[in-house]
Amino acid sequence: MNSSTSSSPSRLSTFKLHRRYTPFVFAFFMAGIMAFLMCCTIVAANTGFDSGYVRRVFSAYALAMPVAFFCVMMVRPLVLKLVALTVHTH
């Protein structure tokens, strides 16, 4: 193992956020991925694939991502309760 390989984990850990930010980071990634996939699907269904498809997807995504993030943050407590009611924890 060379020195650059062994030092990589310590360098990467300096870029990690504290665990108290987990709900926000989860919501950010969940919203980002879901909004993008939904924009791809809905734009294709509504207007089809042509030369302007990618532009339309990113235009829709610019609106959808912040809305999706807000929605994930708002429904998170309800979803946690629903999961607790439906899943055995032991």
SSE layout and pairings?
Elements: H1 3-13, H2 22-47, H3 53-86
Description of the structure:
The chain has helices at 3-13, 22-47, 53-86. It is mostly helical. The longest helix is centred in the C-terminal third of the chain and has 34 residues, at 53-86. It is extended. It starts with a helix and ends with a helix.
Number of discrete helical segments: 3
Please describe the biggest sheet, giving its number of strands, its sense, and whether it closes into a barrel.
none
Q: Residue ranges: pLDDT <50 for 5 or more in a row?
A: none
How much of the residues is beta strand, in percent? Answer: under 5%
Report how far apart the termini are. 41 Å
Average predicted local confidence, pLDDT: 89
Which structural category do the helix and sheet elements fall into? mainly alpha
Q: Count of DSSP E strands?
A: 0
**Residue share in helices?**
over 70%
Secondary-structure element order, as H and E?
HHH
Overall 3D shape? extended
Q: Specify Rg, calculated over alpha carbons.
A: 19 Å
